[in-house]
Write a structure and sequence with these properties.
253 residues; globular
């Protein structure tokens, strides 16, 4: 029972990460929505329709929220003086149905033959979710490059899309490393984290230069420049730590 709960918590954590990534992506899309409409043919999307990958992720997030609600309802029922056994059973069945839908919707990783000591279904599922995220990030970068080529958005939008893709690939590499469980996969995941850290630093540097120029022109406050400088220094520290991790893994390989 403890192992099952641990697996469920791992899945919930992964879904929470997906929710944060999707919310960040939606926020950026709202900021440039008016410009994207002007090049709708190039972008290949409109307000009424989202990409298949985005729709699937959005539905998974909705189910994640329902799982949270189920937990709250179960806690309330169990805290009552006379818990409703029927209601508790219904909630448990609904929770299992949600997990089953997620498994099937991303390719039924549970159908893969796995040795007793092999990766869990949730670990395999995390790989499939990460692949969907990478595909969505690749499309996002392609859209940003198309729109940037038309002069509709600034280059920093392309940098953000590149950063999103680098982080999605790092998440996929980590998920695959958990499934494979070997040192080569760990090194690959660590190198992907370096790539993500480099993308963060490139975006931070570009933002720092942009704000510095705006501050010289009196368009932004000094506090914004200081905040950007702090973010850049943190990005540099993170990159150095990621590189050190790769070196450590290679030396002990």
């Amino acid at each position: 029972m403890q192992q099952l709960r641990f697996r469920e918590e791992m899945l919930r954590e992964r879904l929470a990460q997906t929710e944060r990534a999707l919310n960040e992506s939606r926020s950026r899309e709202r900021q440039t929505d008016a410009k994207l409409q002007e090049v709708e043919v190039l972008a290949g999307r409109n307000e009424a329709s989202a990409s298949g990958a985005d729709a699937k992720l959005a539905h998974i997030i909705d189910l994640y929220h329902r799982l949270q609600a189920i937990d709250r309802e179960r806690s309330q029922l169990q805290a009552s003086t006379k818990p409703d056994a029927r209601a508790l059973k219904d909630l448990e069945n609904e929770r299992e149905a949600i997990f089953q839908w997620v498994r099937v919707s991303i390719g039924d990783p549970g159908s893969v033959a796995v040795a007793k000591a092999g990766p869990s279904r949730e670990a395999l599922m995390a790989v499939e979710v990460a692949r969907v995220e990478v595909a969505a990030a690749e499309k996002g970068l392609e859209r940003a490059r198309d729109v940037n080529g038309q002069g509709m958005v600034a280059r920093n939008e392309v940098l953000r899309a590149q950063t999103d893709l680098a982080h999605a690939r790092a998440n996929l590499a980590r998920a695959e490393a958990r499934v494979k469980g070997d040192r080569d996969a760990e090194i690959k995941a660590a190198q992907a984290q370096v790539d993500a850290a480099q993308a963060d630093m490139a975006e931070a540097e570009a933002n720092m230069v942009r704000l510095w120029n705006l501050q010289r022109a009196g368009a932004v406050a000094r506090a914004e420049v200081d905040a950007a400088d702090l973010k850049l220094r943190k990005a540099r520290t993170t990159l150095e730590a990621a590189r050190a991790d790769v070196k450590r893994l290679q030396e002990t390989h």
